[in-house]
Amino acid sequence: MKSPIFTGSGVAIVTPFKSGDVDFDAFGRIIDWQIESGIDAVIVCGTTGESVTMSNEERLRTIAYCVERVAGRVPVIAGSGTNDTAHAVALSKDAQRAGADALLLVTPYYNKATQNGLVQHYLRILDAVERPCILYNVPSRTGVSIAPETCARLSGHPNIHGIKEASGNLGVVQDILRLCPEDFYVWSGNDDQTVPIYALGGQGVISVVANVYPTEMRRMTELCKANDFAAAGKLQVQLKKLCDAMFCEVNPGPVKAAMNLLGLDAGEYRLPMCEPSPEHMAYIRDALKEYGLLK
Length: 295
Prior knowledge:
Elements: E1 8-12, E2 17-18, E3 21-22, H1 24-36, E4 41-44, H2 56-70, E5 76-79, H3 85-97, E6 102-106, H4 115-128, E7 133-137, H5 139-142, H6 148-154, E8 160-165, H7 170-179, E9 185-188, H8 194-200, E10 204-207, H9 214-225, H10 229-238, H11 240-246, H12 253-261, H13 278-290
Parallel strand pairs: 1-4, 1-10, 4-5, 5-6, 6-7, 7-8, 8-9, 9-10
Antiparallel strand pairs: 2-3
């Protein structure tokens, strides 16, 4: 039986840029702070890490640096999916060579593949690597959703360990858990659905909010692990405004802005990502103050 790659709260970590390059000094400080704050896994070069604007060489260097800096303290999961299957295979092999403990594979975006196409796409990647892999379903960004039946078709592959579910549809989560074997694990891809998905049988969250509030995101998942869903649910509700603020514009716009306000040095954006509007910056600032994060 496969084991979950991690349980609890994993941070979908930002990539700090400076003068057009990855700022590895700032990145190292962010990684260390996250681990010191108790995070359970680091997810590098995902959506929040602006990986689609990075070259292959930059991705490889960033993943390798993250693996070296983490130094085995928590699992490192590398985003290596893209919308061209051959390219995704190459990126996944690179991430494996760089030492990633597992791979996160987003659905091919823009192409709008059929479910049969998704199965073939994923099988090609899974057959090419020797690392545990997590599917990533985020139809609001990719234009295509992985059906629960497709998860079931893929679940028997030895390299498939589960899915990051960011469809926002708890019915889909239930169908995945109903149709797939017990060792096909589900992680929430939406911070504001962490507790509901945990209560259904999920393993935790791959979190954007953890970039600014890692201790509370981990506390919420620890309460879930202890089956104290009353307290976990209360904390989920308390964190709702912060979750909303981190998604008031497309991720990672708000979270990098929030980190920079907090002095966490998330660096520059890469176009077409940019700083949030003045109205949204005011909302982000207000939320950080409400939670006592910004004085």
